[in-house]
Amino acid sequence: MNAFILPKMTWPEVKEALKTAEVALIPIGAQEQHGHLIAEGCDSYRAEAFSARLAEKCFPKVIVTPTINYGISPHHMDFPGTITLRPETLINLLEDIVSSLNKHGIKKFLFVNGHGGNNAPMAVAAENIARKYDVEIGHTLFVRAAKNTIKEEIHSEYFGHACEREVSECLYMVPEIVRKDRIEKADMYDSFTVKYAEDNYVTLVHQFNELTKNGNLGDPTKGSYELGEKIIEEALENISIFIDEFIASKRS
Ligand SMILES: [Zn+2]
Predict the structure, then answer these.
(1) Separation of 114 CA from ligand 1 center, angstroms?
(2) For the chain, which domains are there?
(3) DSSP state, 197?
């Protein structure tokens, strides 16, 4: 693969790469339950695989940092194996990564996030860091960049975790983490909608084991490699266009 992945490079190779690379991608994932059907590193594997593909598409303009394999997952702690960071840990970690790379001359960063629970602290980190250092920071829950495909192809009322969208992304990028014989619909409690619905005008702090018995949302049986390809390729196209604009933009 023709892509600058920092943990796979020597320092002279990095020195050479920094002659052309202007944006650092920082993949952020989670270690949390994803039902019976996807291994718990799902969001980390997806963020890492997506960032590597993005780096290949944008070669030689970006570098990729090591993946942050933990995220903000207190709402999954009732399932075995989930590990959560405190929000301030993620915020501090992002600052340390950005300030280190800034010392090496990188001034533009994109946080490539695979887990919705990271969104709020990631946004706080971007605000804090961009105003403290002489850097520009973008952040994305990368799958949102596939909004056309998601609107056209996904019809479950509630989805977004161990669902048809997420299992499809895995089948396309990291099939080895999917248990293909355990793909099943979400087994929801009747009361879940009040707590979960993203379009509610009030957001409630919730625990996933109050919403779903098996840990899934939506209908993962509707997932496929082909749907994953459509989602990921749309997101890659849109975010690569953003990266070109980000590089071309100059602060006034
Ligand atoms: Zn996930």
Answers:
(1) 7
(2) 4-248 (3.40.50.10310)
(3) -
